[in-house]
Amino acid sequence: xxxxxxxxxxxxxxxxxxxxxxxxxxxxxxxxxxxxxxxxxxxxxxxxxxxxxxxxxxxxxxxxxxxxxxxxxxxxxxxxxxxxxxxxxxxxxxxxxxxxxxxxxxxxxxxxxxxxxxxxxxxxxxxxxxxxxxxxxxxxxxxxxxxxxxxxxxxxxxxxxxxxxxxxxxxxxxxxxxxxxxxxxxxxxxxxxxxxxxxxxxxxxxxxxxxxxxxxxxxxxxxxxxxxxxxxxxxxxxxxxxxxxxxxxxxxxxxxxxxxxxxxxxxxxxxxxxxxxxxxxxxxxxxxxxxxxxxxxxxxxxxxxxxxxxxxxxxxxxxxxxxxxxxxxxxxxxxxxxxxxxxxxxxxxxxxxxxxxxxxxxxxxxxxxxxxxxxxxxxxxxxxxxxxxxxxxxxx
Length: 396
Ligand code: PMP
Ligand code: GLU
Hints:
Elements: H1 6-9, H2 15-28, E1 34-35, H3 47-59, H4 71-85, E2 94-97, H5 100-111, E3 117-122, H6 126-134, E4 138-143, H7 154-160, E5 165-171, H8 183-196, E6 199-203, H9 223-228, E7 229-234, E8 247-250, H10 253-266, H11 272-283, H12 287-308, E9 314-315, E10 323-327, E11 335-336, E12 339-340, H13 344-355, E13 357-358, E14 360-361, E15 370-374, H14 379-395
Parallel strand pairs: 1-13, 3-4, 3-5, 5-6, 6-7
Antiparallel strand pairs: 2-8, 7-8, 9-10, 10-15, 11-12, 14-15
Bound molecules: 4'-deoxy-4'-aminopyridoxal-5'-phosphate and glutamic acid (GLU).
The site of glutamic acid has 10 residues, from helix 2 and helix 6.
């Protein structure tokens, strides 16, 4: 047999999805696992949105839509971007896709040529790395330090710029650290992008899950930044709609057209029922968002307080999203239950086997000293899971 695609055989499975699936499987087989793995809200999609989808199914007419999404949904997206972010777009600049992950795929495909470099601040969301490779570009990681609340500075980024640099990927609020960039920090990064003529992909999917900070879209800071930025957002996190698969981009018309063309061959339109539900999500009552945000904030406060009381580990308080990064490097070099602990993979495996808690190893996000705990799970689970973690720390 002839060799398969070398490029695609080099793509790793998404560790966040793999561990989340493994935890679900263990639970279903009767193992009492507490999962801190899942990066998805544990709340049900708000009723008005569910009802809208059901009504649409009953009404019929669930055919294909325009490949880049329903005009009504694009209008709702434009309205959201204007109201929430002070951004003016026309519907021709919006592409609705099957989740923000798909939007990111389209964005990287649209701007990258073979050999281009894309700068990604680390810790980074697991898929950025592979999506960049899939676009024939090279991911260039720039390490953010815990001492700077896991934020990279413009100076750090500038050191990574080469003649091959095509784009910067910004994710605020950040998965996995919860870091939120201030207006001043984004201005400095924006100046750098202008100076070196770089595109910016700004992943703002956690915009609504923010604690004590204000979300700023870098595209809103100047006309020049508006021109060079592809804003990525979606409904998964804010509206507890992960499985519905609706994400979107806002960009220049030229980039939107390229992404729309790619999508017209790769997937056609995102699910039509979910698109109608998306109109209701964006245009309807928004109170459910704040209710969920408050619940996440209370869980975050409890998590941080409880983790700070465990002397063997440490964490930086997140300002957004629903994850905490926990420094577990104190376990490295030890032999626990016959396992020589070299990094976050061994810690995560031991935690599943000996504490019955599922976590994501930091190595998936480029930082091996850490594990990621998601607090998109009930307070009850959090209390139980952290008590198991504490016992594990005390035992080993
Ligand atoms: N960006 C980040 C940072 C994420 O954590 C996720 C989570 N899945 C996504 C994008 C993609 O979200 P979705 O495809 O569900 O819209
Ligand atoms: N973004 C979530 C996470 O990081 C969901 C899983 C995924 O899409 O990777 O866990």
